[in-house]
Design a protein that fits this description.
Blueprint lengths: L6 H8 L4 H5 L7 H9 L2 E8 L2 E8 L6 E4 L2 E6 L7 H8 L2 E7 L6 E11 L2 H5 L10 E13 L2 H6 L16 H8 L6 H14 L3
Antiparallel strand pairs: 1-2, 1-5, 3-4, 4-7, 5-6, 6-7
């Protein structure tokens, strides 16, 4: 297998980035970038820690990631499975990467920065949804923000309903848990309870 092992080899293959790839990167949020953050109901959060890497989905109503100012973002953490992989990583390594998606748009927005976890009661209460405050708020100091080329979204046809996969063709959560637990967990029972469990863990 032929592999690339140096930056020089990489640049010889790909060349150097063009001006448009570089000029779009800023160290603060401009109104044009704010429009994507405020319209996004979904973001992937990438973190790194001693145990390795993590990339977790975060979703809520559009604009759930709050723009505090042009160099600060705030993201609420809701009730989940309590693994808290991202939060554990942030405590040991504050570097984070975010990828915002906007349904229907091919353009995505990337933000890199450093994060800390706040449990300030007033701040958590300000993110209350259906009577339940955020359990914590990840406060992100923005270091780099730029839009990503739309090619990946267009190539994947992510928003094309005709290309969507029928969920019935995929293994259910219960089926997966039955296998991974060596059948200590009753997958059929888990799946029957899943709709209510999903509802209860929403917030």
């Amino acid at each position: 297998m032929n592999t690339i092992t140096t930056i020089e080899q990489l640049e010889a293959l790909y060349g150097r980035p063009g001006e448009t790839s570089l000029v779009k990167e800023l160290d603060h949020i401009i109104p044009e970038y704010a429009a994507f953050i405020e319209s996004s109901p979904f973001v992937s959060l990438a973190t790194s820690g001693p145990e390795g890497l993590d990339c977790s989905p975060r979703g809520d109503k559009a604009g759930f990631v709050r723009i505090h100012d042009d160099r600060t973002l705030m993201m609420p953490d809701r009730r989940g499975n309590n693994r808290a992989d991202s939060l554990r990583n942030i405590l040991r390594d504050p570097r984070v990467g975010l990828l915002f998606l906007v349904p229907g748009s091919g353009t995505t927005l990337r933000v890199n920065g450093r994060a800390e976890i706040s449990i300030d009661p007033e701040l958590c209460a300000s993110f209350t949804v259906e009577g339940k405050p955020a359990r914590s708020v990840t406060v992100i100091a923005v270091e780099a923000v730029y839009f990503q080329c739309a090619r990946a979204i267009h190539r994947s046809e992510l928003w094309n309903h005709e290309r969507h996969v029928d969920p019935a063709s995929l293994p259910t959560p219960g089926e997966i848990l039955a296998v991974t637990s060596r059948h200590r967990i009753d997958g059929e029972t888990y799946d029957k309870e899943w709709p209510e469990r999903a509802k209860n863990s929403m917030w």
